[in-house]
Every structure is written in C-alpha cells, then in structure tokens.
Amino acid sequence: MSLAYFALIVSIVSASALEIAGAKFGAQLGTMAAALSLSAAALSARKTDYEHYWRATAWGHWLLIAIPLCIAAQLLPLPLSLAHPIWASTREALGGLPLGSITADIGLTLNALVLALAAIALLGVTILVVRDRGRAELVLFVVAGIAAVSALVLVLHRLVPAVLTAAPADLAVSFAGLGLMLNLAVMQLAAERAETRHSLLRSIAIGLCGLLGALVSAAAIFGLSGTNSAVGASLGLVLMLLILVIRRLDLSLLAASAVSVAAVAGTAIVLTFLFEQSSGPLLLRLVPDLGVETKAALERLLADTRWFGAGAGTFSALGRIYQSESGAALAAPSAASSIFAGMGWIGLLAATAASILAVVRLFFGALRRGRDSFFPAAAASCVVFVLIQGFAGPGLLHPAAILCLSVIMGLGLSQSVSQSSR
C-alpha cells in the first residue's frame, strides 16, 4: 500500500496547492494521481482489505455505483423527447438523427464524470490505506494543514488585497470551514496521545500545531466569510462537541438519545430561521446578494430545469444561454444550485439524502470507537458544514475541495469500523 499511500498524498496536495495558487492544471494532476493510487491499491490489496472496505461502505455501496452511472446516462443518445431541448433545435437547424442526450454540453459532463470517478477512487483508496492508525494520523495532518494554509491565504488576502490575488476566495472559505473541524481533531489526537503515555513533548507540539490551524481557520470562517458559512461551521462544531460529551461523560442510551434529539431540534430551528430570512427560490436564499438582473436570470434558469437536469457540470454552458440583461454570463451562486441545474431535483435530493446518511453513519461510528473517535467525528462535522456551505456559496465545486472531501470521508469511514481483522 506504500505506493497507493504516496499517490494519495500527491493527489490531494497537488490539486489543492495548485488550485490555491491559481493554476489551471491542479485538477488534472490530482486526477492522474488518484488513478495511480487506485491502481496501486488494487494490485496490493489483500482479502482483509476488501473486507474492511465493504464494512466501511456498507451504508452506501449503491451510492458509489449510482453517481457515475447517472452522470454517464446523461451522455447516452436518447429520443429527443427525453433529451435536452438544445438537441432538438440543433436537429431542426442541421438535420440528422432524432436523438440527443440529457446533457447540454457533452464535454463538460465528461469532465464531471472523470472528476466523480477520481473522487470515488480517492475515497476507496483512503479507506484501504488508513486502516493503519499511523497512516490515518498522517493523512489527517496533511488535510488539516492544507485547509489551514488555504484559510491563511484568505486572511492574508483580506488584510493585504494585493497579496495572493489568484487564490479563489470561495474555495478558501470552504477550506477554512473544513480546516476548523480537522485541526480540532488534531488537537483531540494530541490529547489522546498524552493520555495514553506517548511522548508528552511531541503531543504538545502536535496540539499547538492543531491550535494554530484552528485559530487561523476560525478567523477566516467567522471573521471574513458570510454569516451562513459561519453558521454551517458552528453546527459542525456542535456535532463534534456532542460526540465528545457523550463519550467523555459515558452517557446512558436514554441520556445520549435525549441530548441528540435536542441537538437535531435546535439545528432544524436554526436552519428554518436561515432559510426564512429571504424570499425567492429555496436554492438562492442563502447565497450573498446577487443583484436584481442576475437573480432574475438565475430564477429563469432554475425554473426551466427538469427532473434530470441539463447535464452534470454544465452550469457554465447554461450560464451563457441564460445570461443577464447586461449580457454577462451567469456563474453558479452555490454548489446546490449547480447540482440542481446539472442533475435536477433527483440529483439534488439524492446528494442531500446521501450527505445526511453519511452524517448518521459517521456519528454512530464515532460513538462506537474508543480513542480514535475523533476521525469519524471530524468527518461528520465536515459533512454538516458542507451541507450548509453547499447552499451558501460555490467553493465546493472546485476539484480541490471535492477531492479533499473524498479523502476526509474515506478517513472517517475507515476509522469508524473495527480494525480487529487487520
């Protein structure tokens, strides 16, 4: 697994660092490294590795297969009655067979399919390679460090606007939220090490690094991002605290259930309040102010979206069709609106349901684990943040965010199941 582990690290570091720096080829390099890591893992995996993978993904085997299949189905030639209207218009103008595809842009949907396969490959490889606790810790350090550096870039850019102008601010905000959860997990790791009589000096050094990363991420997400992003991060923190309290106080099943139900009820109240603060389509209520013309054009785009969408990854193509009255092409205001435009209500509902299912799976996995509970706890908190941030901004659409989130999910799922068979 050494080559797979090395390629995994190269994938997330290269994709993230290059995209933060404004380079255009970070996604391609990350995807190639993901393919290499998958090949290496497949060649070196043993029976126990496969068994561990199936246990870790028992909650959603169907999902890992359904996502690429649904995207691929959008590329298939279909009768024009099922295809995107653009193909009917093309046939009227140029002639040809009465066939078309669901997607409005085959090239963009192919790119989305490749990215989805890379993300699923990284998730699977991560589950396998981090069975070893030492590797799991190193992967946690890497993703926490990447997120903290991205948050630092956002802080520096806001303090000195001339610095690091190429870094996408929306990506930095998303990484800042993830970095807060991950660096708190690093601090928990240091505390667990100290309690189990590891080197005290090393535990203190790890804890201080986690504290520094958490402070930088907190400054970025709470001080320099929007209110809705800050609320998403707060809900993630609440989940981490809930898991920590239940474990540390060794609450009974009844007490733990009561506290969990109260937390869910409080979250529902907060989310209801957030979405009722503005009017208009549900998908546009948490995004920053868009302007009257842009918002009207986006409302037309969303209203015309059908159940199966217009093709994964095609929002930029649709944005040129539904441009505002000023002639400017539309950009995706949030990850949720992009998923809806590309995959329709079916894709958006499936993504939301899968995220909630993952949170539940990781939550119970964290409660079952002992001193390693911070791995699934941090992953669950990251997914909670992603659920809110997905409606608040487009940062999660960047390939770097998608690949890093896959690694975080793989880390949490792998460490949420027993390692006894290793």
From TrEMBL:
This is Uncharacterized protein. The chain crosses the membrane at residues 27-45, 57-76, 108-131, 138-159, 171-191, 203-224, 230-246, 253-275, 339-362, 374-392, 398-417. The keyword Transferase does not apply. Keywords: Membrane, Transmembrane, Transmembrane helix. It comes from Bradyrhizobium nanningense. The lineage of its organism: Bacteria, Pseudomonadati, Pseudomonadota, Alphaproteobacteria, Hyphomicrobiales. The keyword Transmembrane applies.
